[in-house]
Amino acid sequence: MPLCPNCGVELAAEAKTCPLCGASMKTGQASQGPEHFLDPEDKEKLTIEERRTIGWEVLTVSSGIAAVVVSAVNLIDTRSLTWALYPLASLATLWLLISIPLKFRNRPPLAIFIALAAVPLFLISLNLIEGPLGWSIRIAVPIALMVEASAGAAVLAVAKAKRKGPNVLAFGLLAASASCIGIESTISTQVFGFVTLTWSAIVASALVPVSGFLLYLHHRVSKRANLRKLFRL
Questions:
Q1: Domain boundary residue among 119, 146, 173?
Q2: Are residues 52 and 30 in the same domain?
């Protein structure tokens, strides 16, 4: 039996064109239909950007399905959206945070803005579900912003450091100290009407000296000596 000169499939003797790829038996060229036979195992490699797009689409579809299911269960149970608002707010925040490296990786300013706004917006949404704005504006959002500012300062300091070593841990400990002081300051202001530091001062008094020692190791000792040899590790 004759074979198609384009894709190699067996043809009837009287066939003028290939029923699979549409190639003409006279010219060996495809007249209409697919230009070549696609082998299922012949897969094109996806680019990184295409993989991110597919991942974001999967995330969006799965989040949407979860949101619809949760809402439907709540509506069937109580005929109104009540408890479902909490997982819906959580799903929206999670979708937003995961979308940052998938969709906004090439736009750092927008990615940073979304990352910083996601948690405060989540806290505000939880407060709105319960009733008028109160605790989120007075306590939760200020604490979230302080923690984000401390963590952001530490990340920026690490990024600008020419060498990375013990200084990375030092910056992290300083950020933790600043966060603890900010948290207690915010809470004490709302409870007592003035700033009073107790446990956060203890935490800071323990972490700040350790941070200073790590910075000393990084800038003065680790330049000239191998830390493994220094501590006989």
A1: 119
A2: no
149, 151, 157, 160 alpha-carbon torsion, rounded to 10°: -100
Helix axes 199-216, 166-192, angle to 10 degrees: 160
- SS3 category, 23: strand
pLDDT number for residue 1: 61
Block mean pLDDT (10 aa), the chain, length 233: 72 75 60 44 66 90 95 93 94 93 86 91 94 91 94 92 89 95 94 91 95 88 56 53
In a domain? residue 126: no
C-alpha distance from residue 143 to each of 108, 115, 138, 171, 217 (Å): 24, 15, 9, 19, 32
Tokens 């736009």 correspond to 107
Domain count, the chain: 3
